[in-house]
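Final report, closing paragraph on structural work. Over the funding period we assembled a curated collection of sequence-structure pairs, and we close with a single example.
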Amino acid sequence: MTVADNEQQILDEFGFIENPQERLGAIVDATRHYSHFPESKRTEANHVPGCTSQVWVIADPQDDQWSFRSDCDSPLVRALVHLLCRSFANVSTDEAINAEPTILVKLGVLQNLTPTRQNGLSAVRTRIAALATSN
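Its predicted structure, as stored:
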């Protein structure tokens, strides 16, 4: 899989919703049923610095395929970080390190976020690359 492949799946899932606010609501609703990390995963080692909300990201490497899981204390940020992690599901090390996700722009979500939230999402992207680099 590539980031572009994963993003196309996400676009197929949410892109048909024309109103950006309704689309964002659907994205948030879709992540409400995901279980939260246990406290044992909410560690400083898994914490993403630079986010206003508390965000944790962990890597699930298998051979040269990477996937990432996330959790957050804010439903909105949790949904957006989850989309970023989905963009990097089952990708190569090279993709995890070098690919730049565009899903939040394509869904029309990024331009409605505050600069602080945009910086936090950038920190998540940096964390994904760092995890793939370190293993």
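The beta strands are 55-59, 68-72. The chain has six helices and two strands. We thank the funder for supporting this effort.
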